[in-house]
Write a structure and sequence with these properties.
The protein is mainly beta. It is built from no helices and eleven strands. Strands 2, 4, 5, 6, 9, 10 and 11 form a seven-stranded mixed beta sheet that branches. The protein has a four-stranded antiparallel beta sheet with strand order 1-3-8-7, with no helix packed on it. It starts with a strand and ends with a strand. The relative contact order is 0.31.
């Protein structure tokens, strides 16, 4: 089994930064692709960013492009999401997910999520 654990969420003001981290453990062989997703209250879960353990490529949702950066540390088995210039609309539960395919819509492994709240 693969275990994903997110950390780093919190309450911040508009314009602030946060860094989320996802620790990946367990039977990780073959889990080559990792991503971050989010779900705001009353909305469907949406894609945020994607990469693999080599760090190439990195793909972002248009809403976060230029503000968020995804990075993977193969030695530590962590995938981070650096979030800068946060906006109120970034408020959501953020989830880390992974799989053997780059098809982000079908990632089989998910963490429990971490809450990010951006206030004005």
């Amino acid at each position: 089994q693969v275990h994903l654990a997110e950390s780093g969420g919190g309450l911040v003001q508009v314009g602030a930064s946060l860094r989320l981290s996802c620790a990946v453990s367990g039977r990780t062989f073959g889990v080559d692709h990792m991503g971050w997703f989010r779900q705001a209250p009353g909305k469907e879960r949406e894609f945020v960013a994607f990469t693999n353990w080599s760090g190439i490529p990195t793909v972002y949702a248009d809403a976060v492009k230029g503000r968020f950066t995804i990075s993977a540390d193969n030695a530590k088995n962590t995938v981070d999401l650096q979030m800068n210039n946060l906006k109120r609309e970034d408020t959501a539960v953020y989830y880390c997910a992974g799989g053997s395919s780059d098809d982000t819509s079908n990632f089989p492994f998910w963490g429990q999520g971490t809450q990010v709240t951006v206030s004005s």
